[in-house]
Queue: 2 jobs
Job 1
Amino acid sequence: MSDVARSTIAFEGFFARDFPELAIPWRAEEAADPQLLALNQPLAVELGFDPHFLRSPEGIRLLIGNALPEEATPVAQAYSGHQFGWYSPRLGDGRALLLGEVAGDDGKLRDIHLKGSGRTPFARNGDGLAAVGPMLREYIVSESMHALNIPTTRSLAVVGTGRQVQRETLLPGAVLTRVASSHLRVGSFQYARATNDVDLLRRLADHAIERHHPSSAGESNPYLGLLKSVISVQAKLVAQWMLVGFVHGVMNTDNMTVSGETIDYGPCAFMDGFDPGAVYSSIDEQGRYAYRNQPLVAEWNLARFAESLASLIHEDEEQAVALAVEALNAYRQQYSATWFSGMQAKLGLPEGIDDGVASPLVDDLLELVQESRADYTSFFRSLGKAARGQVEPARGMILDLAAFDAWLERWHALAPDADAMDRVNPIYIPRNHLMEEALSAATEGDTGPAERLLAAVSDPFSERPGLEKYAEPAPESFGPYRTFCGT
């Protein structure tokens, strides 16, 4: 590696060094002909990387783990997980690697992580590879979530490998370079607990406290404090998903972070027409992870986290269970408070409004929107115009006009703040039909549509001329939508 690159990029190896029980040293497969498809230049600068170097042949090889500093210690991480409710004791990074941690301009550590970098000892029957489409999906959706102010892992780059990947057809391969506060998951703690190594579990919990929830360290029971902190950040996160109509699609316990960041954008999607039962994942045949189920699934996952921490919370099992249950009882209140506060903001309602007024207003509106299968994003954005007296765009999406007119009268009487509404109701999201258009083009070698979609969703609240197509709902011809994990 060049002296310039060495002076600007230093991967720490804290996880690899401190948790050898959870880390298998491994190297990314060599890419035949790596080509940079997307680079998140602002994020690169934030991390202290030189974007010009990252665009160079040597920088591109660094991004996919083929040209690392000598001191780097890439590892595949071990974790367990409940997948669609079924426990798998040994999952782990089957096609991913943690290159190491870097300290950004703010001094905070972030993981640099690869997806699609080849088979690891955790790969089971998978090929360890990824195709261009799913990697660009994660890049676009994660950056959209960041712009929507929702905690998320982020995407630094997508690099084409020059290798074909066999799925239903042959597809061009790619590697995603992902950035996260860490990759500690509920599944990481499940794995540590399953080893019956209390020292490992305690070290992992101490690491999570130090890195993500330092306030827990000062509590009389820091491990109970850790549980409460994770419950809190996850309750708020899932409420934020619900407020923008995001459906994660694969809420397994190995896809729930301890940090409270959204992770793993596989079979995910934003809702088109408002449907609480919306499912977009091709593998979620029973609808376990449907839109309306996400809050309950998160609570279930957090109960599995509590089980993993129980021996640290109290040495007496009955007391540990009682303390954990008490902590979990706070989840629904925290979720509801975040969701209801967010919904009031979406309606531009004044702070301090009586719940007895606001709650029926929210419930009645959602019933009308669901009955009409109105486009979720477009409808709430159009309410900003309705607050300014232009009611027809919103009115045109509702079937029961008499009921909606009565609702509008009640709402207008509260003097909704249109400007405040526009700051929380996005006009641009990664709409499913546009995403498919962009990914299909990229698969054929044209990244232009993906770049334009990314530019739109990276500034989701500001309406801009020339971007009308990015604000429009899917055409009626765009039928039932299904997404795939990409493995």
Job 2
Amino acid sequence: MSIRKVIEKTQQGQQQLVKHLVQHVRATDSERTILVAGCQRSGTNMLMDILDLSLATDVFHERDNRAFDQYQMRDMLVIKQLQKQSRAPVFVLKTLCELELLPELAQELAPAKILWIYRDFHDVVNSMLKSFSNQSQQVHRLITGHDDSWWGRGLSPGSLALLRSLVTPDLTDTDAAALQWYVRNIMFFESALEGEQNVKLIKYEQLVAEPQSILKQTLDFVDLPLGNKMTNYIFSGSISKHAAPSFSPEIEQLCLSLLSRLDSSSARINYQG
């Protein structure tokens, strides 16, 4: 672990201690929920860490065994009990594996707001290839229609048909990772989240390029103040850190089209906001 990481971990531990002490003294019932959503490797961890800096939040990361089992959310009865036991005004959950359930989760945990962060597929694919080596195998399992993992459960009939039309026996891990970026982010539109008043779409690249203004917009949306140290968690060096991977033309165009659609939706949301 680098010295910077050690320092960050130490600071986070100190901040959490102070936070727990403050919340113990100022204990209150949970008043509202924030659901943090997005595709893997898109900045959800960064956003969760930022929200965790607020003294008003009770944040449940996907690694928290109280709310998650193997990174997947536990039964709603468990989640509601955690919400009931919370002594912070704002209850925060990561919903990485539950994107298709967001409308239902927002209703169950109302009043709730959704923060969906998305990132250019070129950088997401590079990050996925670095972290996981089974992209092609995963997509081939998905097209069987019998994958009972969270990947398979969240796959819409339209996405399944699309994958079956594009997947070939020699599908590369790069193209497979791009297809997974596509089927996860298309859920934003499949779940009819566009235009919903309780949903904010955040572009990762804008957040890291303009941390002060974009983060303030985001926190204003969920009624939280911008703390002095919150932008310290945002690093612009993660954009185009590596050379863009090579995709098949058809799959690259598919992803470019969705990225453009997400950009347009994000611009409209920010303009209206």
